[in-house]
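Recall that a protein's primary structure is simply its ordered list of amino acids. Everything else, from secondary elements to tertiary packing, is in principle encoded there. The following example makes that idea concrete.
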Amino acid sequence: MSNLLDKELIVLQSNAQHYSDVFKELGQTMIDKGYANANYIEGLLEREANFPTGIQVETAGIALPHTDASFVKKSKIGLLVLENPVQFGMMGGDGEKVQVNIVFLLGCSEGNQHLLALQKVIELIQDADFVEKILSLESKNEAYELLSSNLTIQLEEEVK
């Protein structure tokens, strides 16, 4: 069983209309479960405003929101798949926008975990088959297994 995953942080077919709705949906679960501080959502919003997290890959728009480790009590990775795309700013861009279908929330309590998680997710989302699997997920159990076998097992080995 993966320490970085929690099925309650997996949301499929979200009807969020704005990235702030995405942050509230995943962020509130992080707060409610004691994984993040009470001001975690504000931290996500502030970071997104200053350092957008949208990435366009071959088959989808993907966002990788995160905050400073000081907002996080226990490291977790969340997944949210949107029913309809939501606009995010382009990571490293100059005001460009990305229509995002998939959000990986990187809630890391240590800086080195954040960098490893970001690298691993960016590597994975370059694989069009993996992205298609994410988009076609039908259950939280299926999502949990996919993330566990492709992402968190390797991350947990690297941070030991």
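The radius of gyration is 14 Å. Residues 140-158 form the longest helix (19 residues).
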